[in-house]
Write a structure and sequence with these properties.
The complex is a heterodimer of chains A (about 200) and B (about 425). With about 200 residues, chain A is of the alpha/beta class. Chain A has one domain: Pyruvate-ferredoxin oxidoreductase, PFOR, domain III (Pyruvate-ferredoxin Oxidoreductase, domain 3, 3-Layer(aba) Sandwich), CATH 3.40.920.10. In chain A, strand 5, helix 2 and strand 6 form a beta-alpha-beta unit. The longest helix of chain A has 27 residues. Chain B has 3 domains: about 240 residues, Thiamin diphosphate (ThDP)-binding fold, Pyr/PP domains (Rossmann fold, 3-Layer(aba) Sandwich); about 130 residues, Rossmann fold, CATH 3.40.50; about 30 residues, no CATH class. The mean pLDDT of chain B is about 95. The chains are: A alpha/beta (about 200), B alpha/beta (about 425). The interface between A and B is medium-sized, with 30 and 28 residues.
C-alpha cells in the first residue's frame, strides 16, 4: 500500500451512521488541506444489517477506487459484528483497532488480534453510551471520530469537531461534538498509562 | 471553490450553474442523489427560473424533457439501468429529433438478475441510440463534463449522456472544485435553439419520413457526431482556459510514450489502473493507459494514433455483449483495422454488477497479457469452480432450475458469501 495514504474501514450496522462517519472523517482531513475519499460499501442499506464504509486520507490526489482491502485502522461500531463478519480481514500489522463497546478488549475474545498490533493501538470506547448521554440517541459515529483522533493522531481533534458541526447544524452538531470530546478524553485517559507502561 | 462533497451533490451544483430551465426527476438508484440535490437547490432559491417536474416514470422523464427542449428550454434529466431501458423509445426520439437534452446516467448493471451495483451495461445498451456519450473518470470530471455537455449538445443540437459510475463516483465524497457562476456563464452561452415550437410561428417537429429521406436524416446525425470529434477537443481547450484544469476531450494517454502494452478503459476504473501502472513501471514494465472519454462519437483516428506504437493492447471494460464479447474491445478493434503491424488486442470484462476491480487482479491480468496472451473474452476474477459445477449440473439434469439462485446456493453452501 502507498505509504503516504492512511486507510480507515468502518464496520457498523445499518442505522448506526457508518457512512456518515466515514464522510465526516473525510471532511476533517479536508479542512486540514488534505485529500480524502469517503465511500460506502454500496450495499442495499437495511437497518441492522452489517455495513461497511471507507475513508482514505492522503497528501496528494487519490485515484484508487477499489474497496479498502488493507486498512490502517478499523473502527468497529458494533462489537457483535466480530461473530458475523471477518472484520479484521487485511488489517495491517502496525494498524489500529477502535471498538465501540462497554466491555473490555479481553471480554470481546479478540486478544489474538490485539496481541498482533503494537502496544496501545487497540482501544475500546463506550461511544453509544456517550452518544446517549450527550445526544440522546444511540448514534456512535461522531463519538468514535473523537476517539479516532485520540488513538491515531491522523487528524486533529479540532478538525473532527469542525467536521461534525459542519455535518450537523445547531444543537445536534453541538451535542455530537460534546460526545466526540468525551470519547477523545476517554481514549486519551486510556492511552496515557498504556504509553507509560 | 474547493469542497469536500459527495459526487452526486457536486454534479447537482454544476448542473444548476448551467441554468437548466426544466428538470425532469424520477428516482432510481444510484442517480437519485443528483436530482434530490437539484430539488434542494431550487428549494433554497439557489437555482431560479427552473421548472422542476416530478414525473411518473422514466419514459415520462425523457418525454417531458423532449417537449421542453422542443419548446426552447434547456432541459435536463438523469437515470440509470432499467430506467434507461424504460425510456428507450424516447432516447431514440430525443436524438432523432435533434434535441440538445443533457442526461446523467449513473451507470448501473441491468437485470435480470436484479442488481443495483455499477457496471456499464446500461450505457452500452443505448450506445447506438444517437446520443453523445461521455464517461467521467472521477468526480471532478463528472462536474466538468456536465458543463461541457450543455455547450456541446446545444452547439450540435444533439443530446448528450454524461456517464458516471454508480456508487463508485455518485456516492463517493471527495475534494471537488465547484466552479462559480461567472465562469460557467463565460463558458456556456444562453441556449439558442435551431428549432422551436412556438405558437407565434407554427411548425411541426417529428414528421413521418419515408424511404425517400430517412437515409439522409440518419447520415446527417452521423455527420453531426463526426463534427463532435472536432468540437470536443476544442471545448476541452476552452474549458481549460476558463477553469484552469483539463477535463474531457476525446481520450487521454497516461505513460504511453514508450509503452509496449497499452490498456484501454473508460470511467472510474482508470484511477485504479493508473496506480497499478505506476507500480508496474517501478518494476520496469513498459505499460500505459488510454482513457476513452468520448465513447460516442468514438474517436477512431485519435485512438489509432495513441495505440499504433504498442505491441499489445488490453481492453478492460465493465460490460459484455453476451454472445459476442466486449463492446469497447470491438470498437477499439475497428480503430486498428487495416493498420500495418497492428498491436495484438486482448479483451477483458471486469467489474460486472459491482464486483470490485482491485490492483492485485489488474496486476495479474496485465502480466498475463505480456507472458500468456489470450484469445476471446477473459472474465476477470471469474469463479471458475462455481461456473464449472453449474455447467456440470445443468448437463446432468433437464430441470436444473434458475441459474442465479443455483449460483447463490452454491456460494452459501461453500460459506463463500461476501462479507459486505
Amino acid at each position: 500500500m502507498t505509504s503516504s495514504m492512511f486507510q480507515v474501514r468502518i464496520h457498523g450496522r445499518g442505522g448506526q451512521g457508518a457512512v456518515t462517519g466515514a464522510e465526516m472523517l473525510s471532511v476533517a482531513a479536508f479542512v486540514e488541506g488534505r485529500h480524502a475519499q469517503a465511500f460506502p460499501s454500496f450495499g442495499s442499506e437495511r437497518t441492522g444489517a452489517p455495513v461497511v464504509a471507507f475513508c482514505r486520507i492522503a497528501e496528494k490526489e487519490i485515484r484508487l477506487r477499489e474497496p479498502i482491502l488493507e486498512p490502517d485502522c478499523l473502527i468497529v461500531q458494533d462489537a457483535t459484528l466480530f461473530k458475523v463478519v471477518d472484520v479484521f480481514a487485511g488489517l495491517r500489522p502496525g494498524g489500529y483497532l477502535l471498538v465501540n463497546t462497554n466491555k473490555t478488549l479481553a471480554e470481546l475474545h479478540i486478544q489474538e488480534v490485539v496481541a498482533r498490533l503494537p502496544h496501545g493501538h487497540s482501544v475500546i470506547v463506550p461511544a453509544t453510551e456517550l452518544a446517549l448521554k450527550h445526544v440522546g440517541r444511540p448514534l456512535p459515529n461522531a463519538a468514535l471520530l473523537g476517539a479516532f483522533a485520540a488513538l491515531t493522531n491522523v487528524v486533529h481533534f479540532d478538525s473532527v469537531k469542525r467536521a461534525i458541526e459542519q455535518t450537523f447544524s445547531g444543537k445536534i452538531g453541538a451535542t455530537n461534538a460534546a460526545a466526540a470530546i468525551s470519547a477523545f478524553e476517554y481514549v486519551m485517559a486510556q492511552q496515557q498509562p498504556a504509553r507509560v507502561a | 471553490m474547493l469542497k469536500q462533497i459527495e459526487g452526486s451533490h457536486a454534479m447537482a451544483e454544476a448542473i444548476a450553474l448551467c441554468r437548466p430551465e426544466v428538470i425532469c426527476a424520477y428516482p432510481i438508484t444510484p442517480q437519485t442523489h443528483i436530482v434530490e440535490g437539484l430539488a434542494d437547490l431550487i428549494r433554497e432559491g439557489r437555482l431560479t427560473n427552473c421548472e422542476y417536474i416530478n414525473v411518473e416514470s422514466e419514459f415520462a422523464a425523457l418525454s417531458v424533457a423532449i417537449g421542453a427542449s422542443a419548446a426552447g428550454a434547456r432541459a435536463y434529466t438523469a437515470t440509470a439501468s432499467q430506467g434507461l431501458l424504460f425510456m428507450a423509445e424516447a432516447v431514440y426520439n430525443a436524438s432523432g429529433l435533434g434535441l440538445p437534452i443533457v442526461m446523467t446516467l449513473g451507470n448501473r448493471a441491468i437485470g435480470a438478475p436484479i442488481n443495483i451495483w455499477n457496471d456499464h451495461s446500461d450505457a452500452m445498451a443505448m450506445r447506438d441510440a444517437g446520443w453523445l456519450q461521455l464517461f467521467a473518470e472521477d468526480n471532478q470530471e463528472a462536474v466538468d463534463l456536465h458543463i461541457q455537455a450543455f455547450r456541446l449538445a446545444e452547439e450540435l443540437s444533439m443530446p448528450v449522456m454524461v456517464c458516471v459510475d454508480g456508487f463508485i463516483l455518485t456516492h463517493a465524497m471527495e475534494r471537488i472544485d465547484i466552479p462559480n457562476q461567472a465562469e460557467v456563464d463565460a463558458y456556456l452561452p444562453p441556449y439558442d435553439p435551431v428549432q422551436v415550437l412556438d405558437p407565434a410561428e407554427p411548425m411541426s417537429i417529428g414528421a413521418m419520413v419515408g424511404p425517400e429521406a430517412f437515409t439522409e436524416v440518419r447520415f446527417l446525425a452521423h455527420y453531426k457526431q463526426s463534427q463532435a470529434l472536432r468540437l470536443i477537443p476544442q471545448y476541452m481547450a476552452e474549458f481549460a482556459n476558463i477553469f484552469g484544469r483539463e477535463s474531457g476531450g476525446l481520450l487521454r494517454s497516461y505513460r504511453t510514450q514508450d509503452a509496449d502494452l497499452i490498456v484501454v478503459a473508460m470511467g472510474s476504473i482508470c484511477g485504479t489502473i493508473k496506480d497499478t501502472i505506476d507500480e508496474m513501471r517501478d518494476e520496469g514494465i513498459r505499460i500505459g493507459l488510454v482513457t476513452i472519454v468520448s465513447y460516442r462519437p468514438f474517436p477512431l483516428d485519435a485512438l489509432r494514433n495513441a495505440l499504433h506504437g504498442a505491441q499489445d493492447v488490453v481492453v478492460i471494460e465493465k460490460s459484455v455483449a453476451v454472445g459476442m464479447g466486449g463492446q469497447l474491445a470491438d470498437n477499439v478493434d475497428v480503430s486498428l483495422r487495416n493498420l500495418p503491424s497492428a498491436p495484438r488486442l486482448h479483451s477483458a470484462v471486469a467489474g460486472l454488477g459491482g464486483r470490485p476491480i482491485t490492483r492485485p487482479s489488474l496486476h495479474r491480468l496485465f502480466r498475463q497479457a505480456l507472458v500468456q496472451p489470450w484469445e476471446g473474452t477473459h472474465f476477470l476474477d471469474l469463479n471458475e469452480r462455481v461456473v464449472g459445477r453449474e455447467i456440470h449440473q445443468t448437463r446432468k439434469r433437464r430441470r436444473s432450475g434458475p441459474t442465479a439462485e443455483n449460483i447463490l446456493r452454491q456460494l452459501a453452501e461453500s460459506g463463500n458469501v461476501a462479507a459486505e
